[in-house]
Specification:
Layout lengths: L8 H21 L24 H6 L2 H15 L3 H10 L6 H17 L2 H15 L3 E3 L5 E3 L3 H22 L8 H16 L8 H11 L7 H11 L12 H9 L4 H7 L3 H24 L4 H8 L11
Antiparallel strand pairs: 1-2
Helix pairs in contact: 1-13, 3-7, 3-11, 5-6, 7-8, 11-13
Length: 311
């Protein structure tokens, strides 16, 4: 029997669990600086994408986004110039959660915030990038505003977010959804200064094939990956650990990336097992985050939950 508000006795029983999981997620991945963003207003503002976009649906799934974000960080260790910028100019090695929180905030804002706020966050990141210049240990110059580096970071994130959705939410996306996703999201990279950003699945595949000769897994890569694997995630869910999210992210890596990193047979077996574990708890995590910024943004635009799902 349903109770007021459309809930049932069973969902009421689960509410303390969902509240606890949601509290952990917010404390773990959300920055304490809200940047003055109000996801509820102005009413009718569709932001950069809006409720009829594929992006809103993909980015609304927290399990896939969490695993995809970790996979993207792993991929990013393979590009010497991109990694040098992180190594020299960020506190990632001392505070990996801080990097994760910053990425989470930027993705949430550019996905769902009202247009002015999304544009403002892009401007903040661009100004931060202006200070990230230097040389790799081999003497090769890098600049975080380099269009090629911006394209690399964007592609690793969007490709892995999509793979996370397909692995942990649903693999059978509607025809054209993957192409639409890459076409929609390239506007973020382009606003930051990226060029020739892949606008379809085929173009993304071609891009990664073309960039592979520039990639390598060196001592800095190993050290960065070790920091990521040691990152503390105080998970309050029985049967789920930090290893679950890290393995679930590693399971998304394309075969060529696993080969670069040298992921062992044992590590790959663990990755598959932890991916299966995340798949089992994903519905609970999803339910705990059902009233987050994505849903608030849908209401801002006069839309319902149908704007956040394919089915």
């Amino acid at each position: 029997m349903a109770t007021s508000g459309g809930t049932t006795p069973f969902t009421q029983l689960l509410k303390p669990v969902h509240d606890r999981v949601r509290g952990w997620i917010i404390d773990t991945v959300a920055t304490h600086d809200k940047f003055g963003i109000d996801y509820d207003a102005p009413v009718g503002d569709r932001g950069l994408f809006g409720p009829d976009s594929v992006t809103w649906k993909i980015h609304a799934d927290f399990p896939g986004m969490m695993a995809g974000g970790i996979a993207a960080l792993m991929l990013q260790t393979l590009h010497p110039r991109a990694l040098a910028g992180v190594w020299d100019h960020s506190r990632f090695r001392e505070d990996p959660l801080g990097r994760l929180r910053n990425t989470t905030t930027f993705v949430a804002a550019t996905s769902y915030a009202p247009t002015a706020d999304a544009e403002r966050l892009i401007g903040i990141v661009d100004r931060m990038h202006a200070r990230v210049v230097g040389e790799t240990p081999e003497g090769e110059p890098y600049d975080a505003r380099d269009p090629k580096l911006l394209t690399w970071v964007h592609c690793t994130e969007m490709a892995m977010f999509l793979e996370g959705y397909k692995r942990y939410r649903r693999a059978d996306l509607p025809p054209g959804a993957e192409d639409a996703y890459f076409d929609e999201t390239r506007c973020i990279a382009e606003k930051l200064g990226a060029r020739n950003v892949p606008a379809s699945r085929a173009e993304m595949t071609e891009y990664f094939a073309a960039v592979q000769p520039q990639l390598r897994f060196d001592e800095r890569s190993r050290a960065t990956l070790a920091v990521l694997e040691a990152m503390e995630l105080p998970v309050p869910v029985a049967g789920v650990s930090r290893r679950t999210f890290l393995g679930a992210g590693a399971a998304l890596l394309p075969e060529w990336a696993r080969a670069h990193i040298g992921r062992s047979r044992r590590e790959r077996l663990v990755d598959r097992a932890t991916a299966a574990a995340l798949g089992r708890v994903a519905p609970m995590i999803r339910a705990s985050m059902s009233e987050g910024v994505a849903m608030r943004s849908a209401r801002r635009c006069g839309a319902g939950r149908e704007a956040l799902v394919f089915d």
